Amino acid sequence: MLARIRGFTLVEMLVTLTLISIIASMAFPLIQLDQKRRQERELKDALIQIRTALDNYKQAVDEGRIYMSADSSGYPKTLTDLVDGVPDLKDIKGRKIYFLRRIPSDPFVPDQTSGAESWALRSYASPADAPEAGDDVYDIRSKSKKTALDGTRYDTW
């Protein structure tokens, strides 16, 4: 008497693979949505971090802790000034004031640009409706023209 070999039939295997592929195809859009939400949160956090550092720099200038020339707006010349630090005029030892440890990158800009190069800059002299770089850094925005989940463009945040 021959023993019957137990195992899966071809039909059972195909049904199983079909079910797995259907479940995976439903999960893929959710994974993409989660990734976009994460990138948007990173962008918001980076914008808050850099804008807070710019405000703190301006406050230090207003308090007389940082040298400001007569024709200056009181904002840093470059974003790297926030990381490199500036001499504190009220510190007897002449230590520097640092506003950021590093410049965060824009998560929606390609990887070849990082840090300060990933941001579009606005100077104090440029109008809000037509922001342009200039002699100082008054504000930053994303260079990305992509649309966010809420329907706005990232470069308007």
TrEMBL record:
Pfam families: N_methyl
Domain of life: Bacteria
GO biological process: protein secretion by the type II secretion system
Signal peptide: none
InterPro entries: Bac_GSPG_pilin, N_methyl_site, Pilin-like
Any one GO CC term of the record: type II protein secretion system complex
Keywords on record: Coiled coil, Membrane, Methylation, Transmembrane, Transmembrane helix
TM spans (from-to): 13-31
Coiled-coil residue spans: 36-63
Record-given protein name: General secretion pathway protein GspG
